[in-house]
Design a protein that fits this description.
The chain has 168 residues and is α/β, with parallel strands linked by helices. The protein folds into two domains: 91 residues, NAD(P)-binding Rossmann-like Domain (Rossmann fold, 3-Layer(aba) Sandwich); 61 residues, no CATH class. It is built from seven helices and five strands. Strands 2-1-3-4-5 form a five-stranded parallel sheet. Helix 1 links the parallel strand 1 and strand 2. Helix 5 crosses helix 7. The radius of gyration is 22 Å and the shape is elongated.
């Protein structure tokens, strides 16, 4: 198997992936890194990834069989989102391209969103917001409850559920 020098390995990160992966790549000697703040489409997309060895995406990029066929050097696709459903896994496997996701990249954010939505529901914010858009001001706290002291049932105790439990 041929091994490339780290400075020859081309890494392309799309959709405003956090700067931490770039820092980690740099610490390990990888220098040929391009990072883009948005989803790339069409010819611009193909041109950027055509000679990439490693590609990092988020949920806005879709890697279908046609995209994978146009890459000549791709060996890995890192999905910095919840799962790997943005990549055609059958085609990637057939072409020998490793696809993985960053398991914990969004866990804390999703757990915080769950807690925030629980507070919003307990305080009855949605009906009050709707009324405010009708130019009605509901000043009463009737029907509002604090989350403090309540027991929350967590369905599914994986990465996100355990973070909700630890945060709460």
């Amino acid at each position: 198997m041929l091994s490339l020098a780290k400075d020859w390995i081309r890494i392309v990160l799309l959709e405003n992936i956090h700067s931490r992966p770039v820092e980690i790549f740099n610490v390990h000697g990888y220098r040929n890194i391009e990072s883009f703040p948005m989803v790339l489409e069409g010819d611009s997309f193909y041109e950027r990834i055509r000679n990439a060895h490693i590609l990092g995406i988020r949920s806005g990029t879709h890697i279908d069989p046609a995209v994978l066929e146009k890459t000549h050097k791709l060996i890995e696709v890192g999905c910095f989102c919840i799962c790997t459903d943005r990549v055609d896994l059958c085609s990637a496997t057939r072409l020998g391209i490793l696809v993985f996701n960053a398991l914990y990249s969004n866990t804390r954010s999703v757990a915080e969103l769950v807690i925030g939505l629980a507070v919003i529901l307990m305080h009855g914010i949605f009906p009050k917001r709707t009324a405010a858009h009708r130019h009605e001001w509901i000043k009463s706290a009737s029907g509002s409850n604090e989350l403090r002291g309540k027991t929350i049932g967590i369905i599914g105790y994986g990465h996100i559920g355990s973070q909700v439990d630890n945060s709460y």
